Amino acid sequence: MKLIERKQYLDKMIHVIGTPDIKVLTGVRRSGKSKLLEAFKVYVQKNIPNANIIHINFNLSKYDNLKKYKDLNEYIESNYMEGRDNFVLIDEI
């Protein structure tokens, strides 16, 4: 399967780094939202040395225990690092 690079969407995501709003990627099924999130994660890893990425993918069974909001919140808080640029990426929510 050929991966279509979505540079314009990635650039929009990069442009809003540091703003306090929650960002949500929406689109029809199989349109590349997860791949775009992965590309964003790679960008952050390469370009923001102070980044702490908390990545949760609900397609993976290891995150099944986070389906209740209290458990999800506890997981995020326990992985949050003071003094770092924290990114919470949640896929397939």
Question: What would you say this structure looks like, in words?
Answer:
The two termini are 24 Å apart. Helix 1 crosses helix 2 (33-47). The chain is built from three helices and two strands, in the order ααβαβ. A two-stranded parallel sheet has the order 1-2. Helix content is 38%, strand content 15%. Strand 1 (51-57), helix 3 (69-79) and strand 2 (85-91) form a beta-alpha-beta unit. The chain is globular, with a radius of gyration of 14 Å. The protein has helices at residues 7-15, 33-47, 69-79, and strands at 51-57, 85-91. The model has no long low-confidence stretch (mean pLDDT 94). With 93 residues, the chain is α+β, with helices and mostly antiparallel strands.
**Roughly what fraction of the amino acids lie in strands?**
15-25%
Return the structural class. Answer: alpha+beta
- Helical amount: 25-40%
Largest sheet: 2 strands, parallel
Low-confidence stretches: none
The gross shape turns out to be globular
What are the secondary-structure elements, in order, as H or E? Answer: HHEHE
CA distance, first residue to last residue: 24 Å
Number of strands: 2
Oligomeric state of this protein: single chain
Output the strand order for the largest sheet. 1-2
Radius of gyration: 14 Å
Mean pLDDT comes to: 94
Note the total helix count: 3
